[in-house]
């Protein structure tokens, strides 16, 4: 613990950027492969109708992501700050809280999810064969909820220690297994859409077992031999993790709204196109979260150690790096949209009629770097409320009326443009909130009284 702590609170920031962000990006890209693999294999091996079923089901799989993020981000934030403050008592209580919380929440999702799958999909506009295949896919995913949620949330604890390479390695194992199993269950065993869900669940079960063994073999400062449950930690876990989970939940609401608008103002081709575009959007977003994963332990530990100048430096450097990274991908999407869409869609007519819509969705995407880093910053210092504010504005409060107004004003193009307009507004808000918080940190550093308590 001491070696990692000293490196994160005293090491060169650019070195830490590379050391923590590269594994973070790779690890988060691995997470994205779970979603992309299902879409690619189903689209190419089964067909557009099956792809539409998986796509329209996808937002509801984020219910599991909500649980993993709720418990994982909250626990990881507390862990990093506890390591920075050398609070061994809190460190020893985190893992037990995580396991029990994930178990209770996952069982709830499994029962309710299997029961209400059809209602959820009908609400999104699914019907006919798309509805039937979507129900089967979604129920299988919900059956594996505990394994998905434990493997992902516990992986966040490993990252919270600053052990990004170990976290990435475990995540990579699950992704590789998913890639291997997908074509076997979809095509070879002829399970179709259901095969994609089965492959994902099996891969996550194995990943969960490997994660458990990581803690059991004492490769971490956390150990299953020291499992404790501390009820007093739960409010902060839920408060900090709640803002991150809210983003996942609001993403579900946002996607559902988009599918609903597309089903009303577009058609089946637009539904296929939107499903692919949203998966590409999510996959592109994931590397940004990877950089954010590298930022989180640096901010958490330095904040716990009261090294506020390093906290500000880290946010600035990581924000610039994430913007540059996104800019490269954004440029490719803008220049070669047909190529990107052809990875998922065989029908050239859908591609030719839809690539301009695809561009509209990504128009202002480079601003996402600062937005995500600001959210990560607030989560890492225990101010989940401000992170939640950015999330809700970005994905519901601003997005929903903008999407409806633009769609009614300029037609289906407005549906695709809504995300870009919303992101531009949220970028300005995030910048202002960061500036205000940095001023508070500056005032603390400038104060002659070093014992002032930082007011949350």
Radius of gyration: 21 Å
Percentage beta strand: under 5%
Q: Characterize the largest beta sheet: strand count, sense, and whether it forms a barrel.
A: none
* Number of self-contained structural domains: 1
Oligomer: single chain
| Averaged pLDDT | 82
Explained architecture:
This protein is mainly α. It has one domain. It has helices at 2-10, 13-45, 48-84, 88-124, 128-143, 145-160, 164-188, 193-216, 234-265, 268-304, 308-335, 337-342, 348-361, 368-380, 384-397, 399-410, 412-446. The two termini are 27 Å apart. Mean pLDDT is 82; it is low at 452-456. Keywords: Antibiotic resistance, Antiport, Cell membrane, Ion transport, Membrane, Transmembrane, Transmembrane helix, Transport.
Topology record:
Blueprint: H1 2-10, H2 13-45, H3 48-84, H4 88-124, H5 128-143, H6 145-160, H7 164-188, H8 193-216, H9 234-265, H10 268-304, H11 308-335, H12 337-342, H13 348-361, H14 368-380, H15 384-397, H16 399-410, H17 412-446
Considering the chains and any ligands shown, give keywords for the structure.
single chain, 456 residues, disordered C terminus, cell membrane, MATE_fam, transport, transmembrane helix, xenobiotic transmembrane transporter activity
């Amino acid at each position: 613990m001491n070696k990692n702590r000293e490196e994160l609170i005293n090491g060169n920031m650019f070195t830490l950027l590379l050391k923590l962000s590269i594994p973070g990006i790779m690890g988060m890209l691995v997470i994205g492969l779970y979603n992309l693999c299902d879409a690619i294999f189903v689209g190419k091996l089964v067909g557009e109708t099956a792809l539409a079923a998986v796509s329209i089901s996808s937002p509801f799989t984020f219910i599991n992501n909500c649980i993993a993020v709720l418990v994982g981000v909250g626990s990881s934030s507390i862990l990093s700050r506890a390591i920075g403050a050398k609070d061994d008592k809190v460190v020893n209580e985190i893992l037990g809280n995580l396991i029990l919380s994930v178990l209770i929440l996952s069982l709830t999702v499994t029962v309710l999810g299997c029961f209400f799958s059809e209602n959820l999909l009908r609400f999104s506009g699914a019907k006919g064969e798309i509805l039937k295949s979507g129900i089967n896919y979604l129920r299988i995913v919900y059956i594996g909820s505990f394994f998905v949620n434990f493997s992902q949330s516990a992986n966040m604890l490993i990252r919270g220690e600053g052990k990004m390479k170990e976290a990435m390695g475990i995540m990579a194992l699950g992704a590789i297994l998913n890639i291997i199993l997908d074509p076997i269950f979809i095509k070879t065993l002829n399970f179709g859409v259901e095969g994609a869900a089965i492959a994902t669940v099996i891969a996550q079960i194995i990943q969960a077992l490997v994660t458990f063994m990581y803690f059991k073999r004492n490769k971490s400062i956390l150990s299953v031999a020291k499992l404790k449950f501390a009820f007093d930690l739960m409010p902060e876990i839920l408060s900090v993790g709640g803002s991150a989970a809210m983003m996942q939940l609001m993403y579900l609401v946002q996607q559902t709204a988009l599918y609903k608008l597309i089903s009303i103002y577009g058609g089946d081709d637009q539904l296929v196109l939107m499903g692919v575009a949203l998966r590409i959007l999510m996959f592109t977003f994931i590397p940004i979260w990877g950089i954010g994963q590298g930022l989180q332990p640096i901010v958490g530990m330095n904040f716990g150690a009261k090294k506020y100048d390093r906290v500000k430096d880290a946010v600035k450097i990581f924000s610039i790096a994430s913007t540059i990274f996104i800019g490269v991908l954004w440029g490719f999407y803008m220049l070669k949209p047909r190529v990107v869409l052809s990875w998922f869609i065989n029908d050239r007519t859908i591609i030719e009629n839809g690539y301009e819509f695809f561009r509209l969705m990504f128009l202002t995407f480079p601003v996402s770097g600062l937005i995500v880093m600001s959210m990560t910053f607030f989560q890492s210092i225990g101010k989940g409320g401000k992170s939640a504010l950015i999330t809700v504005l970005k994905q519901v409060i601003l997005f929903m009326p903008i999407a409806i107004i633009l769609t009614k004003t300029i037609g289906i193009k407005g549906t695709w443009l809504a995300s870009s307009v919303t992101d531009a507004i949220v970028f300005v808000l995030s910048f202002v909130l960061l500036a205000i918080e940095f001023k508070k940190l500056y005032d603390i550093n400038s104060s002659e009284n070093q014992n002032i308590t930082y007011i949350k």
